[in-house]
Design a protein that fits this description.
single chain, 205 residues, Arc Repressor Mutant, subunit A, 2 domains, elongated
Amino acid sequence: MEQELQLETETENSPNKTVSQDEILQAALKLFAQKGYFNTSLPDIKDAVGLKTANGIYQHFKTKQAIALALRENILDSLSISIDDIRRRNRKSSEQLREIVDLLFKLTDEAPEIVRFLLFINVGEFLPEQPPLLETAPFNKIKRILQNGVKEGEIRSLDPVLAYAYFFGIIQHTLGLILSGELPKSAESYEAQVWLAAWGVIVKK
């Protein structure tokens, strides 16, 4: 009976309006990227997906933190799958890293909110139980690519974390400047020269 009343109330408040989990995640991602996690409320997300009440959100997620967790897991899973595909297509570490850089620059142009949420929002502040970025599956795979590059003689003898810091420090800083507008052109227009700079720091000469 209580469930029937809840469904009736929701129907009255938001007639013919239902939203999917993906719609909620997409709306939240844009808001988190634009306003930050702490400046985004569940009512903000509700409004962004066009609901009159938050009942449609609560059907999928109980809290804002649960939304952020699902977003992070989805983004990391997608990136991990993409890196697996890149590693299957390319044997050399340099080729694998080049495609990963290409993916990140393409995402910066086509889906900047994903890159902002992944690389520039400190999720430890609101998801304290989650591992740091460098300990997640896709970034462990990137460290293994760097480690293999050292073994194969492509990359100079460096600790994988240090190699990551040298290489992706340049990549990440550049993407941050693009997202902030300090570098005014598209990410694609900077990619070639940034790749050369980043690769030049770690390549075995």
